[in-house]
Each structure stands twice: as structure tokens, then as C-alpha cells.
Amino acid sequence: MTYNANEKGYYGQFGGAFIPEMLYPNTEELRQNYIQIMEEPSFKKEFHALLKDYVGRPTPLYFANRLSDKYKTKIYLKREDLCHTGAHKVNNTIGQILMAKRLGKTRIIAETGAGQHGVATATVCALMGIDCVVYMGEIDIARQAPNVARMKMLGAEVRPALSGSRTLKDATNEAIRDWINNPVDTHYIIGSVVGPHPYPDMVARFQSVISEEIQSQLLEKEGTPNPDYLIACVGGGSNAAGTYYHYLDNMDVGIIAVEAAGKGIHSGESAATSALGKVGIIHGSKTLLMQTQDGQITEPYSISAGLDYPGVGPMHAHLYTSGRGEFISVTDDEAMTAGLLVSQLEGIIPAIETSHAFAIFDHRKFKPDDILVINLSGRGDKDLQTYIDYFKL
Ligand SMILES: *Cc1c(COP(=O)(O)O)cnc(C)c1O
């Protein structure tokens, strides 16, 4: 039994590539080449040099003293918030822009909801001097003005998606249409462990630098590479996949995934995909997703823009249904309270996505000698206005 993808991109029954015939040449070119390219010594060298000097890796593994005291267990924080651009997303976009270059691509497209993945993509396109078009729903463009400005400043073109609900799924449709029309020169950078094979596996491999570092850092600090539990928030699932990757088949290590319950799992306003989802196809992949009786995708809700996704990557659907992972849903209120607590106990303001992971202690007890690693996926600067409004600061 392995919890990794097989050659066809399946994690148990989930994954695969459910794509229109016209997209087949694009994903096929990537599928045939991605592992070989990632394993080339020159690729590895360039990837790791940029992670070190541009992103600022390795990110620290920090023992959170006061948080550990409060919850009477040993809590380490993996500081992805200290990556350039303020979150883990750049690990993946650096990897994919290097992949695009190796495949001879001269143009990048991406879709974005809250704008975080758009910014991470625009950043690496500026770094490499490659043309970048980011599709974004018209409604999201209005809601996320600072990230739109960042993308423009970085030289990207932000193209509004004007159809449907004018949000993320419509931007995704536009990006796919663009890719079908430009199969030769364009690479589509997907921002999480979602989409058709090979994207979930490729993105997980790029993000796996997180668990690779945890292993050696924990060995140095605790004399063992294995924590008792790894904890991460899950939107599409890329920061979680990176945190779990080197431990997936190591049953000594517990895996905990935290999803957004919004205003409550059964409130009709949530993004608790594992609790509410049924098997279906989204974004070219078979996975768990929130849908109506007749299979229409339900509009998700969370106070955190990065967890506001109706599906979950196929790796996580498999971790959930197989029982390998423990899935817990946390409400907006629990997350916001946890975010404030971490700010005041550790002097670190987390992204609201990450605050969901910190709310685990409202749901779960740990033993005094348990070693926990919580992935601190991003910093909270981007969320300051939401924190201000919520706490009336
Ligand atoms: C985008 C984002 C997430 C959610 O995306 P995943 O693919 O599930 O990791 C989580 N945390 C932060 C800080 C983000 O920006």
C-alpha cells in the first residue's frame, strides 16, 4: 500500500485525467517528461539554488514555547510564512516555471481566486522574463484589489473571466480554453495539488521540500526525524501534501488535515469538502467535491480565501477515505480566535488559512510528550483587513 500516486496518477480510486480530447497533447507532453526532468541533476541544482537564494529556504523549524506550554504538548512550527511572497505557494511556481523552460515554453497562463497563486506565478514570470496571463473572475478582481495591483506591478496581464458566477471556476474555464488554443508555446501553472494528472503529483513533489526539511531539522532537534503528528490546513491541499510527502507511507507518523467549516459544516456556508463531499470530477480530476443531488458544484464559503474551494486534491480524498489521515473541520470563529492567540503567544500573525490549523486544539487532545509539527503555510499581512473587521481592532 502506498499513499502516493501510481503511474496513471491515481491515489486509490481518486485522480486520473478527465480532460477534453483537445487538451490531451498538452497534459501528455507534461506527463511523459515531468519525472525525468525533475530528476535531472541540472534541474535539481537550479531548483534548489533558487529555493535557497530567492525563496529563502530552508525555512526554520521553530519550537513554539508558549504555545506548547498552553496546550501541554510539544509544538513545532514549520515557517513557510518566511518564504519570499509570504507563503508556500512559491515553491511550486518556481518548480513549474523551470519545468516550462525545459519544455521550451515561452508563455505562462494561470488562474487565481483570491490572487495568491496569481501573485506567486507573476513573481516567477518576472524572475524569468516570461509573458504571463492570469485569469481571474470579475467579482474576485473587485474583491482582491491589492493582489491585482501586485500582479500588474510584476508585469502580468490580469484577464477578467466574465461568464457564470465570475469567480474561480470561471477563471479556470477561461485558462483551460486558452491552453487548448495555445498548446505549443504555453504552460499552464496550476497552484495546488489539483487538476488532471500529472499536476497533483508534480505539485506535491515540488512542495515536498517542506517534509524533506522537517525530517532533517527534527532529527537535529529531537533525535528522530519522525513527529507523532503532522498538521496542516487544506484548501486544494498543496501545503499539506508538501508537509506529509516524505511521511505518507510511514505509519509511525499521524497525519491531520484541517478544513474550513465556514459558518458550520451543516450551515450551507462551508468548504468542509471531506465531511460533505461526494465522488465527482472537478478540474480534470476524480475526487471528493461538494455538489448538489444532481451533480452541480456547490459554491463554497470560508472566511479564508485560500480554503474556499469546493474540492480537494485526490491525494487527500484518498487519505480521507482510506483512514490514513484524520480530517477535522474548523469554523471561521474558531480559526480567527486561534489566529489571534498565536499572534499574542508567539509574535507570529498567521494567514487565516493557517489559523484553521491552529484551531485543532479546540477539537483534539495530545499527550505531553507528543511531538507535533504544524505547517505555518503563510503570513497574515494579506489578511489584516479581515482581522481588523472581525476583531474591531
Ligand atoms: C493558498 C493557501 C492555502 C491553501 O492552499 P493549499 O493548496 O491547500 O495549500 C493555505 N495557506 C496559505 C497561506 C495559502 O496562501
Which key features would you list for this structure?
393 residues, alpha/beta, Rossmann fold, 2 domains, six-stranded mixed beta sheet, four-stranded parallel beta sheet, 16 helices, 14 strands, globular, binds pyridoxal-5'-phosphate
Description:
The chain is an alpha/beta fold. The chain contains 16 helices and 14 strands. The protein has helices at residues 24-39, 41-55, 65-71, 89-102, 116-128, 138-143, 145-153, 168-181, 199-207, 209-222, 238-244, 273-276, 314-322, 332-346, 352-358, 384-391, and strands spanning 10-11, 14-15, 61-63, 74-78, 107-112, 131-137, 157-161, 186-188, 229-233, 254-262, 278-282, 285-289, 325-331, 371-375. A six-stranded mixed β-sheet has the order 3-4-14-9-10-13, with helices on both faces. A four-stranded parallel β-sheet has the order 7-6-5-8, sandwiched between helices. Helix 2 runs antiparallel to helix 4 (89-102) and helix 14 crosses helix 15. The radius of gyration is 19 Å and the shape is globular. Bound molecules: pyridoxal-5'-phosphate. Pyridoxal-5'-phosphate (PLP) is lined by residues 87, 89, 116, 192, 233-240, 306-307, 351, 353-354, 377-378.
